[in-house]
C-alpha cells in the first residue's frame, strides 16, 4: 500500500543518512516529491548534484537526461541512480547523435569552418539540457554549450559573442521563443528537419540564418493552445496566464509571461493573495502549487489532465526498491556515462555554469 511504501522509503533514508541525497524535479508526483531532499527545476538540480560531493549515492527522481547530467557533474566515486530506467524524455529522443553529426557536416560545407574577421565561429551548437549526453558531448567538442529553460537567453547571448549563428537542439519552441525575445526575426530562424537534405531548406535561407531550430518539441507542452488562453480570459477577465517556454510561440505570445518551472513557482509565491492564475505546464506542478497556495485560484490551462508520462514512471515502489538496494550495498539502476562522452559533455555543462550567474 501507499503507506507501506512511505514507511519503507523513510526507513531506508534514515539508515542511509548522509550517504544519500534524493533530488526531485518539480514534475514528480507528490508521493515521490515528499521524500526528496531537494526539489527544483533542471538547472537547480544539476547544481544540487554538483554541490553534494560527500553523498555516496544521488538518487534522481526525474528523467534520464537529468540523471546523466547529475552523473557527469558529480564526483567519480559517487553513484547516480534513476529509480526507473524507463523514465526517458520523448523530446530528448528527437535529437539523435548521428542526425546531429550529419546536419553539422552539411552546414560546415555551406558555412566553412573558419572564423570571420572578428574571430567569430561560423556556427555554435547550443543544446537544451533535455538532450542525451552524446549531444552535450557534441556541443562540448564543437565550441558549444548547454542551456536550460531558466538561462536560455543568457546562454544564447554567450553563443552570439562567439559565433555568427547558432544551431539549437532539440526544442524548436524554447529556441524560437528565446531568439524572438532577443529580437531575431522569424525568417532568420529556419527549422531543421533532419530527415531532409539541408534540413528542408535552401542554401540561401541557411546563409541568412541566425538560429537554426532543430525540429523537436515536448508532447506535454504541445497540448496548450491559444484557444485555452482565450477561454480562461473570458471566464476570468483578471486572470494572469503563465506558461513554460516549451509551449509554442503562439501560446507564449498570448500568455502574460513565460518561464521555467522555478520561475512559475516564484511568480505564484510572489502574487498578491486572491490572484487568479492559469498555468501552462505539467499537471503535477500545477496541482501542487494550487494546494500550497490556497489563497489563489490556480488552475491548469488544459482541463484534460496532462502529466508527463515518463516523469510519472518514477513510482514510489521503484524509489523504495533502489533505496533498499543501497541499504544492502547494492547500486540498482545506476546511470553511468562513459568518460569518452562525459568529458566533452562536461565542458559544455561547465560553460553553462560559468555563464549563468
Ligand atoms: P525546467 O525544469 O528547466 O523548467 O524544465 C522543464 C522540463 O520539461 C523538464 O523536462
Ligand atoms: Fe521531456 Fe516534456 Fe516530459 Fe519535460 S515535460 S521530461 S520535455 S516530455
TrEMBL record:
Listed transmembrane segments: none
Subcellular location as annotated: Cytoplasm
An individual GO BP term: 'de novo' NAD+ biosynthetic process from L-aspartate
EC number(s) from the headed UniProt entry: 2.5.1.72
Predominant place of localization: cytoplasm
UniProt keywords, alphabetically: 4Fe-4S, Cytoplasm, Iron, Iron-sulfur, Metal-binding, Pyridine nucleotide biosynthesis, Transferase
Reactions accelerated catalytically: iminosuccinate + dihydroxyacetone phosphate = quinolinate + phosphate + 2 H2O + H(+)
Cofactors (names): [4Fe-4S] cluster
Source domain of life: Bacteria
Binding site for iminosuccinate: 25, 42, 128-130, 149, 244-246, 261
CC cofactor note: Binds 1 [4Fe-4S] cluster per subunit.
Top EC class of this enzyme: transferase
Gene Ontology molecular-function annotations: 4 iron, 4 sulfur cluster binding; metal ion binding; quinolinate synthetase A activity
Binding site for [4Fe-4S] cluster: 89, 218, 308
GO CC, any one term: cytosol
Its biological purpose: Catalyzes the condensation of iminoaspartate with dihydroxyacetone phosphate to form quinolinate.
Family: Belongs to the quinolinate synthase family. Type 3 subfamily.
Name of this protein: Quinolinate synthase
